[in-house]
Amino acid sequence: MSDTDGSPQTLHDAVAATAPAALVADGFLTVVGAIAEGAKRVDALTRRAALAGMLGDTGEMNVQGEIVQVLDAAGTDAFVSSLSDCGAVAALACEELEEAVFVSDRSDHPYLVLFDPVDGSSNIDVAVTIGSIFAIYRRSDDSPVTDATLLRPGREQCGAVYVVYGSSTVLVVATEGRVDGFTLDPASGEFLHSHVQIRIPDKCAAYSVNEGNQGNWHPEMQNAVAELRSDYGLRYVGSLVADFHRDLLKGGIFLYPGDVKSPSGKLRLGYEANPLCYIAEQAGGAGSTGTERILDVQPELLHQRTPLIVGNADVVERVVARLAE
Ligand code: P6P
After folding, report:
1. What pLDDT was estimated at residue 3?
2. Ligand 1 in contact with 240 (CB < 6 A)?
3. How would you list the strands of the sheet with 169-175, edge to edge?
4. Could you say which of 36, 106, 126, 308 is the most buried, measured as most Cβ atoms within 10 Å of its Cβ?
5. Is the CB of 239 inside a 6 Å radius of any atom of ligand 1?
6. Residue among 239, 241, 262, 305 whose CB has most ligand 1 atoms within 8 A, to mutate
7. Nearest to 70 by CA among 112, 124, 19, 29
8. CA 77–ligand 1 middle distance (angstroms)
9. pLDDT tens digits, 76-129
10. Is the pLDDT of residue 4 over 90?
11. What is the largest CA-CA distance in the chain?
């Protein structure tokens, strides 16, 4: 959308004009603004990573059993601060933190945010695209927030955001029935409305999976991917947000299946699969575990993993049908 002078609207103005009125009235813009502020910090560190001491790892292990990259820690600090300080978030959960962060039970803090601050951070050392992913929920009542409050199925999200730090930095926001993209303008430091009402194209353009894992897939998954291999080209960045953003804009299907070594796959339900499948569905796509809609899964654990198949709805459905054969 553009301002009256034809220039692209800012993130704040465009979301204020398009998000559901109830969300706008209840501080949703404050949450999106806090995400944008944290994203600008991560963008600045990413663009100068080798010069800003942002390469390599901290030597620490996170709750996922993964070595924490320096940028993971910096991104966690940036978003935990901006979301905690914004005045609209009651609690947050972060991939890098074993426990949730409880900010306030006040009724004027109606939002809950689950996020992956820097997804694909091991790619930063080789200057490959990385991302940040956010699931946003509204508290269902004013009762004190507990761990259980954060274990909500993805269909209850009121919004979702991801940021892709690529050849440009694009922040994508989804609310009920609408997905829009905003490109960070280095000149003004503003996220400007660059992708209006994103809809996933009707035609799937590529499949995206780590083919190196195929020896570990169950036979029905091997058969399903063999069919994709014969129908589409392969695109795989190895950075979830990069692969997802391409599939959302160009059409495509991304798969990270469970396998004999990791039955639940690698990706996390709460702050990777749920927000991206919410966004995919608002843009006309679909997301499945292979046996059920991702957004219907009732989380049991904050950091639980899930198999993920997401992208063009007809292709997702075809893969799910093959898996059921
Ligand atoms: P693999 C990055 O480490 C990540 O979490 C996602 O961004 C990405 O989709 C996936 O892992 C890549 O995993 O096993 O193919 O290297």
Report:
1. 73
2. yes
3. 101-102, 89-94, 111-119, 130-138, 159-165, 169-175, 178-185, 190-195
4. 308
5. yes
6. 239
7. 124
8. 22
9. 999 999 999 999 999 999 999 999 999 999 999 999 999 999 999 879 999 999
10. no
11. 57
Nearest CA to ligand 1 atom 9: 240
Q: Is the confidence at residue 316, as pLDDT, over 70?
A: yes
Confidence of residue 1 (pLDDT cuts 50, 70, 90): low
Considering Cα of 262, then 211, then 94, then 23, what sign does the dihedral take? negative
State the distance from the centre of ligand 1 to the C-alpha of 92, rounded, in angstroms.
23
Beta carbon of 266 within 6 Å of any ligand 1 atom: yes
Torsion, Cα 169 116 47 253, to 10 degrees, reads -50
Token duo for residue 283: 């843009």
Q: Which two tokens stand for residue 236?
A: 């795989």
Residue-wise pLDDT for 162-176, tens only, equals 999 999 999 999 999
Annotate 157-189 with b (16+ C-beta within 10 A) or e (fewer).
bbbbbbbbbbeebbbbbbbeebbbbbbbeeeee
Q: Identify the band that residue 67 occupies on the pLDDT scale cut at 50, 70 and 90.
A: confident
Task: Report the pLDDT value the prediction gives residue 139, as an integer from 0 to 100.
Answer: 97
Measure 71 CA to ligand 1 centroid, in angstroms: 16
The closest residue, in CA terms, to atom 2 on ligand 1 is 120
Distance 12 CA to ligand 1 centre (A): 31
Over its C-alpha atoms, the chain yields an Rg (Å, rounded) of: 19
Q: Is the CB of 119 under 6 A from ligand 1?
A: yes
* pLDDT tens, position by position, 125-164: 999 999 999 999 999 999 999 999 999 999 999 999 999 9
